[in-house]
């Protein structure tokens, strides 16, 4: 299986160079795009707190079904702990029924972002393949019903204001199993932060410093954090059903507005793959507010 890349088309070709069953027509000259996917569930299905695990499972299945070498691609990236060049966010219209959160209507939206042509192609092709029939998700029958390739966002300034589409996580520099949060909040949820094992409170100035250091590591370039407005510190549930590493834990996710100054290249990297830790598990996705 080979990869063919053109200014206006990205396709897979097999060894005989015959046209592929699936391809992406990308209406742009250069750069990357985001993929929006509309997914139908049964009305009134409960959305669990650890919903990202279910969505990540769907993305992994897409990688496996992305082509003849899909399983090899999946094993290459998921056989050991390795940073993946993508992030995602999920929008559920929800209503409350007691302590339960249930889907309002029948649809939710998955937004996938990457700076890798191959990851973009594979997730598109795999989701397209999965859309051919129903599957199970969140204990419900699910069906992929639509795709939308979003145009590239151009940066015209080195100062940009972002908002989080999914909360970001910042690891504690002393112990990578723990995550820091600004001790003054504001906090979203009924439980106190000190009830959670993996939470480490720090003052806002120290949190800003660690956040900036994280963005520098991700981009490999200088990044200035001009302003940080924390909208909320929210408990986010992470977990894995991997037989060799099963766990469920609650971490402090940060919802915020960030004003950053950096090169266009650095800004684009953060826009494409997010900020913070566990980005490929559905954390740290950003959207441009102005700039």
Question: In terms of topology, how is this protein built?
Answer:
Blueprint: E1 2-5, E2 9-13, E3 23-25, E4 34-40, H1 51-64, H2 70-78, E5 86-91, E6 94-97, E7 100-103, E8 107-114, H3 117-130, E9 135-137, E10 140-150, E11 159-164, E12 170-171, E13 179-182, E14 199-202, H4 204-219, E15 223-240, E16 247-262, H5 264-273, E17 286-290
Parallel strand pairs: 13-14
Antiparallel strand pairs: 1-2, 2-3, 4-8, 4-10, 5-8, 6-7, 9-10, 11-16, 11-17, 12-13, 15-16
Helix pairs in contact: 1-2, 1-3
Strand content: 35-45%
Please mark out the parts with pLDDT under 50 across 5 or more consecutive residues, or reply none: 1-31
- Can you list the strand order of the major beta sheet? 5-8-4-10-9
Counting structural domains, the number is: 2
Which sequence of SSEs, written as H and E, runs from N to C?
Answer: EEEEHHEEEEHEEEEEEHEEHE
CATH class value of the largest domain: Alpha Beta
Total count of helical runs of at least 4 residues:
5
Total strands = 17
Shape annotation: globular
Q: Please give the share of residues in helix.
A: 10-25%
Major sheet summary line: 5 strands, antiparallel
Structural class, from secondary structure content? Answer: alpha+beta
Which fold name is given in CATH as the topology of the largest domain?
Answer: Alpha-Beta Plaits
Give the N-to-C terminal Cα separation. 40 Å
> What radius of gyration results from the CA coordinates?
19 Å
Whole-number mean pLDDT = 88
What would CATH call the architecture of the largest domain? Answer: 2-Layer Sandwich
């Amino acid at each position: 299986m080979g990869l063919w890349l053109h200014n206006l088309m990205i396709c897979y070709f097999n060894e005989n160079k015959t046209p592929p069953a699936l391809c992406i027509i990308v209406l742009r000259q250069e750069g990357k795009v985001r993929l929006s996917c509309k997914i139908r569930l049964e009305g009134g299905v409960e959305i669990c707190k650890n919903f990202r695990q279910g969505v990540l499972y769907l993305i992994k299945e897409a990688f496996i079904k992305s082509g003849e070498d899909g399983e090899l691609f999946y094993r290459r990236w998921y056989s050991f702990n390795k940073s993946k060049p993508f992030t995602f966010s999920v929008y559920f219209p929800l209503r409350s029924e007691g302590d339960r959160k249930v889907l309002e209507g029948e649809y939710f939206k998955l937004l996938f972002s990457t700076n890798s042509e191959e990851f973009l192609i594979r997730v598109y092709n795999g989701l397209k393949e999965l859309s051919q029939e129903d599957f199970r998700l969140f204990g419900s029958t699910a069906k992929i019903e639509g795709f939308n390739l979003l145009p590239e966002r151009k940066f015209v300034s080195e100062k940009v204001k972002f908002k989080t589409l999914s909360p970001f996580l910042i690891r504690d520099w002393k112990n990578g199993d723990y995550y820091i949060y600004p001790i003054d909040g504001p906090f979203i949820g009924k439980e106190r932060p000190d009830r959670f094992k993996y939470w480490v409170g720090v003052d806002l100035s120290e949190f800003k410093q660690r956040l900036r250091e994280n963005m520098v590591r991700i981009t490999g370039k200088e990044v200035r954090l001009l302003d940080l407005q924390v909208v909320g510190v929210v408990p986010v549930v992470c977990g894995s059903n991997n037989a060799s590493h099963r766990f469920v834990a609650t971490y402090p996710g940060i919802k915020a507005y960030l004003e950053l100054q950096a090169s266009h290249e650095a800004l684009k990297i953060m826009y494409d793959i997010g900020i913070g830790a566990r980005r490929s598990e559905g954390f740290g996705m950003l959207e441009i507010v102005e700039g």
